[in-house]
Amino acid sequence: MTLFGRIGRYLEPQLLRDLARKTVVLTGARQVGKTTLARQLMERFGRAQYLNWDVPADRAVLLRQSWNPGATLLVLDEIHKMPKWKSWLKGVIDAKAPAQALLVTGSARMDTFRQAGESLAGRYRHLHLAPISVREWCDHTDASPQEALLHLIERGGFPEPCLAELADDAQRWRRQYATDLIREDVLEFSRLQEINTMRVFFELLRERVGSPLSLASLARDLAVSPTTLRRYLDILQALYVVIVVQPWHRNIARALLHAPKVYFTDNGLVKGDDGVRFENAVAVMLAKQAHFIRDTRGREAGLHYIRTKDGVEVDFCLSVDGALTQLVECKLVDSSPHRALLRFAAQFPEAVATQIVRDARQEEVRGPIAVVPAADWLARLEA
């Protein structure tokens, strides 16, 4: 099996367990490797069938429901593009043979399609496939954690640019990817008419990675309403183009009133210096960890940042079931304990406070804070 074929296998054990019990819905960003993972799972089953709504011949089979009833695994790709797909899928799930495993894949988030009601409640398990992480790259190559981190900061964690032999090939992929996202996926997902405004908004976000985002200020610059930009941001989040990180607050409603931070799922889309690109790469891997906890344990895990009214801030914090578990500050070279991290470590003693340093040479403990090489710390994440 090629390296490309092994990417995403961190989810394979959970996929197999869940497929033995229920339908599995596998979502993730466009070209993150969902189809490749589905096809390598098909090799595990004696008889498997793959059908993609975007392929006309497959679409006809889907509409007739004339697939092989004896298939031990049935993979349905991109069916969220089908009108009233939830009701259709409910019927398929309820009518399928008990011995048939059913895997549904797609690039848009299932929970954005509220208009179809809750007809699938209790009928499926939802798993998210995220870009390649330091741990995953190290598991499948001879790279050290530091080599893996630097590679992912430069190339991003999407399989094709990450595995490209030449940097130019990765950049060509990225240029086409960004174009297709706006021209095809956003239009198809949202029926959006103001495509030029969305394109400008997308480019502005690339320059504001890691900073609290004022939609009101951007709305004035673009001569649109903040409500319109909120809708644009929701669309980009629903398509897994961006990761929206809300400030930590025990009251969810209050957290939503404060400025979020935005990171890109593809690290290569970030416009910024080394510090910004490093912080974005960490955000992608922490979001992957939070998804993994939610998907495999059923616990409510979240990624946030933490900030006071006077501007004291720590880059990231992780929560599980409403309690902070991790405080994480990102630094390129500075191993001196970050003052804000010291402050919040005292305020939240139940959370593990860690300062991850991209170019640190060794680990050390400075009071309540562990100062560690970022690559080593990221390699120890579960996903």
Give the topology, please.
Blueprint: H1 3-6, H2 12-19, E1 23-27, H3 34-42, E2 48-52, H4 56-64, E3 73-77, H5 85-95, E4 101-106, E5 124-128, H6 134-140, H7 145-155, H8 159-163, H9 167-190, H10 195-206, H11 215-222, H12 226-238, E6 242-247, H13 252-257, E7 261-264, H14 274-297, E8 301-307, E9 313-320, E10 323-331, H15 339-347, E11 352-357, E12 364-366, E13 369-373, H16 374-379
Parallel strand pairs: 1-4, 1-5, 2-3, 3-4, 6-8, 10-11, 11-13
Antiparallel strand pairs: 6-7, 8-9, 9-10, 12-13
Structural notes for this entry:
The structure is a single chain. This protein has 16 helices and 13 strands. The chain has two domains: 3-128, Rossmann fold; 134-379, no CATH class. The protein is globular. The model is unreliable at 113-118 (pLDDT under 50). By secondary structure, the chain is an alpha/beta fold. Helix content is 43%, strand content 19%. Strand 10 (323-331), helix 15 (339-347) and strand 11 form a beta-alpha-beta unit. Helix 7 (145-155) crosses helix 14 (274-297). The strands form two sheets. Strands 7-6-8-9-10-11-13-12 form an eight-stranded mixed beta sheet, with helices on both faces. It has a five-stranded parallel beta sheet with strand order 2-3-4-1-5. The two termini are 21 Å apart.
The count of β-strands is 13
Compute the gyration radius: what is it? 21 Å
Distance between the termini: 21 Å
Tally of domains: 2
**Can you give the helix content as a percent range?**
40-55%
Low-pLDDT stretches: 113-118
Question: Mean pLDDT, as a whole number?
Answer: 89
Q: What kind of sheet is the major sheet?
A: 8 strands, mixed
Order of SSEs: HHEHEHEHEEHHHHHHHEHEHEEEHEEEH
Beta-strand content:
15-25%
